[in-house]
Structure formats: structure tokens, C-alpha cells
Specification:
By secondary structure, the protein is α/β, with parallel strands linked by helices. The chain has 2 domains: 283 residues, Aldolase class I (TIM Barrel); 94 residues, Sandwich (Immunoglobulin-like), CATH 2.60.40.1180. It contains 15 helices and 16 strands. The strands form 3 sheets. An 8-stranded parallel β-sheet has the order 7-6-5-4-3-2-1-8. Strands 9-10-11-16-13-14 form a 6-stranded antiparallel β-sheet, with helices on one face. Helix 2 crosses helix 8, helix 7 packs parallel to helix 8 and helix 13 packs parallel to helix 15. It starts with a helix and ends in a 7-residue tail after the last strand. It binds alpha-D-galactopyranose.
């Protein structure tokens, strides 16, 4: 959500007395139910998939941009490419329509949401079938407020009807944005929509944008409530197509990690926004960097790119099984930025396997924020970066599979050289675990 949109949101929340009365009534009506948890059993590991927003935004002109407009055609082509290019086999599963899929008004008889009839001529059930028949799952965007961020109808006065419509359309994943809404009602309203989704009986992952709108108003989100009611949630700004944007998100997540990191886990994830690999803004090494940090953060891996034009070396990063395994680690512990030295950041995440003493293995990303030329040499004592097992660790380079770096004990110092705006990403497998003695 950009600043303009934010002020748009603010404009919407100036309340008239009758609106205030409605809000209070609404809060009373839903708050007694808000203690009921989502408990849909979904997203035990961070969801993986594809969503159109970062790459395609709100292109609706299919006459001039037939291959780029938000249309049935785009999602069918992407579904095909997810399968034929190997992304589906690597775990990318959800095909998610973001904003700009609706007609500007609801059906005037039934009040139901209506997909844009020109751009989705066969209807959403047809598209859902197409996606399901390819072995993938179907996601859809909506907004908690009166309008979506791009100005299409939102759910606020039609929550039960819309939840039911999503179930009828065979939706598997719902992203509920928070433009043009009163943030004061979100603590009750978002759980209510989750409850209505659950009530349909159809399992749907529930992605909430509730915390980011609260953060914008200087309010600390209630993470315990988020964990109870949402499978994932957007914490911060929209990602744009630049390294600057990736870095800004990384900075937000690390500076606020004490209050954010503990809340990620199986069934409930912090979401730093989409992967932008394969677009215009990131170099090859910056692409490795985003993928590594998103793996450490246990972030949903939702790509937004044109799968037809992703270069082979970028595709190899997106499909790197070892990096994906870090992201999808079953313990689901979100990693942290452990330290910064000379503008080199060390990010680490405890992962499987564990050994008999209970020590974890770790994924460790050495991230350079330097821009001064040559690869920068640096060494760290393992203990200093949190790797304390007495047994030691086998070290493996996750991006260069041929590089097995050998055995390191916790007092050993680990030396590496990182190129500007690059990453070296390693797995430290603890000794004494079932497959490492
Ligand atoms: C907000 C969200 C984005 C995207 C757009 C669509 O800005 O944060 O991810 O969904 O709305 O309008």
C-alpha cells in the first residue's frame, strides 16, 4: 500500500455519528465470536505459489496488452508454466489472483461479487477447475473495506455472502486486504471473516493484511490474535521491483524482529511480501539474496513474475531444492538477523535435523550490504553467531552444491568472502543427528 492509497484509506475513516453507531454495533455482534480460532489445519509450512500483483499490477487493457492484462488467459498460461517449467514439482502450488479481477459493482439482484465478464469470460469456476485439473490450488484477493485498494467492491457489508461465494467458486486461498476500511473494527472484523470462511466447510488459507494497516497508524498488532485467526499476514509495505525495496523490507523485519519473529510458525506466518525474482529490478546475486533471506524468514514463497521470460539461472534459484527445504523446514522456526559487522549481516535460522543433545542445525546467510567493489573477506567464530553445539557442524554451500566445506566446531572461526549486494548461504548440519555422526 503506497502513501497515496494510505491517505485514501484515512479519508475513508472519518466517521459520521451513524457510522460510529454501526461500528459499535458491529463490534458487539462479532466480538463474542472472535475468540474462536481459525484452526483450519492449513499452511503447516509457508505457502508457495504465484500471485500477479507485483509484476502485473492493475493492467486491465486487454486490447493493447493481451499478454499482460489481468485475465483468465494470464492465469491459465501461468498455471501451464508452473507445471511445464518445473515450479509445481518444486512446491509452488497456489495460483493467486490479486486485485482488479472484479466488475466495478455487484450483481444488482443477488448482491454477489461478479468477476470482470470481459477478462474472465468463462467465470471463476471454470478457472478454478483449470487450476485444480493441473494439480494446483486457486487463490483470490478481496478487501475488508468498502473497496479494494484499486477501487473495486470490498466485502464489508457482505461478508457472509462473499465467504459463501468464495466456497462456491472453489477457492483455496483468500488474501483479504485492508484499504478503505476502519482499522478500529479490524480486530473483530478480520476474525469474523475467517470464521465465515470456516463455516462454509471449504478449507481456505486465510491471508490477512490487518497488521500492516494498524502499523501505519502507529498501533502494535496483536500477534496472538493474528496467530489464532490467520494463516499468514502482511506486516509491512508492498514490495516493488528493486533491490532497495527488498532491502527496506529486510530492515523492517530485522529491526522489529523481537516482536515479529516469535509469532511465525506452522499454520501462522509473517509475510514480507512476494518474491520478485525474474523481473527487471534484481541482479543475479540480488536474486539469490532475496531467496536466501525469505528462506531464513520462513516467508511464504509467492512469486510475482512472468514465468515465460524467467531466465534459466534465475529459475534455478527459484527451484533450488536445498533453499526451498530451508524455507519449508518442518520445525517452522522463523530466523533472525544475528549480527552486523562491517556492513555484512549474518542471518540464521534453526532447522532440522537436531541431534540427541537437542542441538539444532542452522541455515546461515551472510548478506553483504556493501557496495565497495571486491568480495569482502570476513570471519566469524561459530559461537558468536549462535552455533554452540559441542559436537560441531558439517557445512554445505546451498547455492553451490559442489562445495562441501567440511567440519567446524563451535569455537572454530568460519571464513567467507561475499560480493557486494550478494549472499553466501550455508547449511550447518549438527553432528550427532541421525544422518551425521
Ligand atoms: C495493497 C496490497 C498489495 C496489493 C494491492 C492491490 O497495496 O498490499 O499486495 O494487493 O493492494 O491493489
Amino acid at each position: 500500500m503506497n502513501v497515496a492509497r494510505k491517505s485514501g484509506t484515512r479519508k475513508e475513516i472519518r466517521e459520521t455519528p451513524s457510522k460510529m453507531f454501526y461500528n459499535i454495533l458491529f463490534l458487539l455482534l462479532v466480538s463474542y465470536r472472535a475468540t474462536q480460532a481459525l484452526e483450519n489445519g492449513l499452511a503447516r509450512t509457508p505457502p508457495m505459489g504465484w500471485m500477479h500483483w507485483e509484476r502485473y499490477r492493475c493492467i486491465t487493457d486487454c486490447k493493447n496488452y493481451p499478454n499482460e492484462c489481468i485475465s483468465e488467459n494470464l492465469f491459465k498460461r501461468t498455471t501451464d508454466l508452473l507445471v511445464s517449467e518445473g515450479y509445481a514439482a518444486a512446491g509452488y502450488e497456489y495460483v493467486i489472483i490479486d486485485d482488479c479481477w472484479l466488475e466495478k459493482s455487484r450483481d444488482n439482484v443477488t448482491n454477489k461479487l461478479v468477476e470482470d465478464r470481459y477478462r474472465f469470460p468463462s467465470g471463476l469456476n471454470h478457472l478454478a477447475d483449470y487450476i485444480h485439473n493441473s494439480g494446483l490450488k486457486f487463490g483470490l484477493y478481496q478487501d475488508y473495506g468498502t473497496h479494494t485498494c484499486a477501487g473495486y467492491p470490498g466485502v464489508i457489508n457482505h461478508m457472509a455472502l462473499d465467504a459463501q461465494t468464495f466456497a462456491e467458486w472453489d477457492v483455496d486461498y483468500v488474501k483479504l486486504d485492508g484499504c478503505y476500511a476502519d482499522t478500529a473494527t479490524m480486530d473483530a472484523g478480520y476474525p469474523e471473516f475467517g470464521r465465515l470462511l470456516n463455516k462454509t466447510g471449504r478449507p481456505m488459507i486465510y491471508s490477512c493484511s490487518w497488521p500492516v494497516y494498524q502499523e501505519y497508524e502507529g498501533k502494535i498488532p496483536d500477534y496472538e490474535a493474528l496467530k489464532q485467526h490467520c494463516n499468514l499476514w502482511r506486516n509491512y509495505d508492498d514490495i516493488d521491483d528493486s533491490f532497495e525495496s527488498v532491502a527496506k523490507i529486510m530492515d523492517y523485519f530485522s529491526k522489529n524482529q523481537d516482536r515479529i519473529q516469535p509469532h511465525g510458525g506452522p499454520g501462522h506466518w509473517n509475510d514480507p511480501d512476494m518474491l520478485i525474482l525474474g523481473n527487471y529490478g534484481l541482479s543475479y546475486d540480488q536474486s539469490k539474496l532475496q531467496m536466501a533471506v525469505w528462506a531464513i524468514l520462513a516467508a511464504p514463497l509467492i512469486m510475482s513474475n512472468d514465468l515465460a521470460t524467467v531466465r534459466p539461472e534465475i529459475k534455478a534459484i527459484l527451484q533450488n531444492r536445498d533453499v526451498i527445504a530451508v524455507n519449508q523446514d518442518p520445525l517452522g522456526i522463523q530466523g533472525r538477523r544475528i549480527l552486523i559487522q562491517k556492513n555484512i549481516e549474518v542471518w540464521a535460522r534453526p532447522i532440522m535435523p537436531r541431534n540427541a543433545a537437542g542441538d539444532y542445525s542452522y541455515a546461515v546467510a551472510f548478506v553483504s550490504r556493501r557496495t565497495d567493489g571486491a568480495p569482502y573477506p570476513i570471519s566469524f567464530n561459530l559461537k558468536e553467531i549462535g552455533l554452540r553445539s559441542q559436537r560441531g557442524y558439517d557445512v554445505f554451500n546451498l547455492y553451490d552444491k559442489t562445495e562441501q566445506l567440511g567440519l567446524y566446531k563451535s569455537l572454530d572461526s568460519f571464513y567467507t568472502r561475499i560480493i557486494p549486494n550478494g549472499v553466501n548461504f550455508y547449511k550447518f548440519t549438527v553432528l550427532g543427528s541421525p544422518n551425521r555422526y
